[in-house]
Amino acid sequence: MSETVQDELVGMPEPAVLRRHSHAGQTVVSYGSRVAFCYDSGDTAMRNLAVVALTDAGEPGLRVAAVFGLSPEYVSRLRGRAHKDGAAGLVARRGRPPKLSAREVGKARRWAADGVTQTEIAARLKVSRPVISELLVRCGPLPVQPILTPDVTVPDAPDAPDAPDAPDAPDAPDVTVPDAPDAPDVAVPDAPDVVVPDVAVPGVQGSAAAGGLARIGTGVYPSRYAGASLLYGYLTAAGASGIFGSLAGGPGRRYDDVAILTVATVGFALGIDTVEGAKHLRRAEAGPLVGIGVIPQLRTFRPRLAALADRSDPLALQRRFAAGLLAADPPTSHVYFVDDHFVPYTGARPVAKGYNTKRRLAEPGRADTPIIDERGRAVVFTSGEPSGLTRSLPAALAELRAVLGPDAPILLGFDRGGAFP
User: Fold this and answer.
1) pTM
2) Most buried pick, 61, 154, 213, 287, via CB within 10 A?
């Protein structure tokens, strides 16, 4: 039977299957009976180019990853780098990364052409002066645009008297004036159309339309963040609803101040480092966790949270939370532990430098000084410029005293510290 089948299949084309063969230092990638790529086995750039070309041609990424012995995540990163930087993005950059980006190099050359000193350019770009000196020696300032000769500008002078033809121009405003109100008439009704489809959880639209807020009632909602419901006990014990309700921010149509503050609290508990990290949460799954249909988008969440921060006292808010927690579950010991933690800062504002023990160098940042009880619960913390514990401890102790009262006994424990022995 097998011989009969083989005789019938004689002359049939080979099935188009993606294969990769390596022999004698050469790698051949074939698709059926045709060779698609042939390159040295050690040429990583050609391999990455073949991977991206095959996926762009419609081959599934999972199959390409299996054929080349790569992970699907790495294939996805290669495609992203190729679409962003082209073929140059497929070659791993070796050596120390450049101190200046291409945009900063252009700024330095343009400033040098304008007569700015190298010291001033280095200060603007936050690098050392030798870096700017080496750059200008290698590339030089940007060439100054040549000034037009008088022969070019002189003929333009007689054109000025042609200005009397300008009375014909009023015809243009006569046409555009009636068109101006048409633009807002079209854009105004389109605005709510973008917001309404964001509500994707069943049963949420009715609640939002009835009360103007995205609140939800009882029900069962799937959520990958259900583990964060362990925070309910702490928030209830500390009286978070009353504390959040005492703050006043900007007006909101769909989300009140309590919802905004609860989203921020639960978001940081879920692991986002900054407010920008909220865009990585699944809105429809994080919403039921805080009692709303979907959490607000970043363009709504960020200004609302900023308005609340501008109109509140963060230290007073911290003291109220700490007092509520300790009143609900008093500590069994009067021993508290204090320590300094350096938090690096990568923004553009000029801030003081401190010693980063992880990288073993001085860099811009701040120092947080938290105080915890013997059960590991954070009670209070202060934040300021990097300094020794002898300077940051009095302010942290004053915050702890404001929470515990003037007569509560306090015993602080701390270590020597690696940054400031």
Assistant:
1) 0.43
2) 287
Report the DSSP pairing between strands 411-413 and 335-338: parallel
Rounded to the nearest angstrom, the gap between the alpha carbon of residue 235 and the centroid of all alpha carbons in its chain is 27
C-beta separation of 278 from 295 below 8 A: yes
Token pair in block for residue 249: 């921010």
> Could you count the other beta carbons within 10 Å of the beta carbon of residue 336?
21
| Distances 381 to 377, 393, 394, 396 between C-alpha atoms, Å | 12, 10, 11, 6
C-alpha torsion sign, points 303, 308, 313, 317: negative
Q: Decide: 86 and 45 in contact? Cβ < 8 Å.
A: no
Mind giving me the DSSP string for 293-323?
SSPPPHHHHHHHHHHHHHTS-HHHHHHHHHH
| 39 neighbors 48 (Cβ within 8 angstroms) | no
State the Cα–Cα distance between residues 309 and 249, nearest whole angstrom.
8
Which amino acid belongs to residue 155? P
Summarised one tens digit per residue, pLDDT across range 322-370 is 888 888 888 888 899 998 888 888 888 888 888 888 888 889 999 888 8
Residue type present at position 8: E
